[in-house]
């Protein structure tokens, strides 16, 4: 009787072990989060790339030389206006530019001289 009970227990444990040997489940991959704020790389109609990162701003050419055209700092005010203190390496002048993030991929800007331009987020 003990031998038969032992066989039943061994059979039951083997059956349970078979239930637990499933293949590992794949880990879900998180999608890239949507960009927030102005951080990232933006392009203008003239073919320049502007990068905003941790309060620093740099504009470079995309013609293969990667020449720095402008640089500066930026802040985002409580009203959402992005203010850029820009130094132009070409004109050797400083200017203040105010920008509004009108969409996740569009930044409308106006310089202190009144000229307007739009930047488009590069993905």
TrEMBL record:
Residues 1-17 form the signal peptide. Keywords: Cell outer membrane, Lipoprotein, Membrane, Palmitate, Signal. PROSITE patterns: PROKAR_LIPOPROTEIN (PS51257). Pfam families: OMP10. Belongs to the rhizobiaceae omp10 lipoprotein family. It is a lipid-anchor. This is Outer membrane lipoprotein. It comes from the Bacteria. It is found in: Cell outer membrane. The keyword Membrane applies. The keyword Membrane applies. Its main location: membrane.
């Amino acid at each position: 009787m003990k031998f038969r009970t032992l066989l039943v227990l061994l059979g039951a444990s083997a059956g349970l072990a078979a239930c637990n040997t499933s293949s590992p489940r794949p880990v879900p991959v998180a999608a890239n989060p949507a960009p927030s704020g102005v951080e990232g790389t933006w392009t203008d109609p003239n073919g320049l790339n502007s990068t905003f990162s941790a309060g620093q701003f740099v504009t470079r050419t995309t013609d293969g030389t990667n020449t720095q055209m402008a640089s500066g700092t930026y802040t985002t005010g409580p009203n959402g206006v992005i203010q850029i203190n820009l130094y132009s390496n070409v004109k050797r002048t400083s200017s203040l530019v105010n920008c509004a993030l009108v969409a996740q991929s569009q930044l409308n800007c106006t310089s202190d001289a009144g000229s307007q331009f739009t930047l488009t987020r590069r993905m």
